[in-house]
Amino acid sequence: MNLIDIALNLFFPQTCCICEKICNEVICCRCKKKLEKIVFPHRKCFLEISGIYYDEHMHIFRYDGIIKQKIRQYKFKDKAYLYRLFGEIIYSNSKVMKYIRCYDYIIPIPLHKYRYRERGYNQAYLILKDLQKKDNTIKVKINILQKQKNIKPQSTLNKIDRKDNIRNAYSVINSIEVKNKKILLFDDVFTTGSTTNECSRILKENGAKKIGVLTIAKD
User: 34 versus 152: which is more confidently predicted?
Assistant: First the structure.
């Protein structure tokens, strides 16, 4: 540890991302034990089901309790540093890592440029960037999909309106990277699946071989 790191740790000591007590790790031992009781990576296949364009989906938690609280803080309360929490959760789970490695690369669901400016970061990409630092064999691509329409926030709409709202909101900007590839989409929360399904539809139309979805939580 260099002098700068020592000084930073002295004045701004690292804390557990959950209980916020001073800790040398991203998650303290006590909070890790609590997480172990609620983490349950669940994988479900959707092969050849009409209207669903992704082939499978894995989520790590239910969207409630402490996980819901931390995701909302991460997205809406300017607590960007919580990317470390979710990156560590993914990296430390062998089942999730095995799922990721089944794909050629992983794509964070993109934000529209106006939403990005408002928030200051893409929450999905920050997590994947951290994960790639931990395991450089994971390929993260951000030059495949773009969000071309600045639509109403999906969280404010019901299931039917979400599907209409998201239609044609995304486009592929690099079709060469898509054709015959196994692509994993990553997002924080899966609610109705409208966003991931629309992204999957666009990717399949551009020649993707297989589409998987990974989310931190499922509502």
Answer: 34
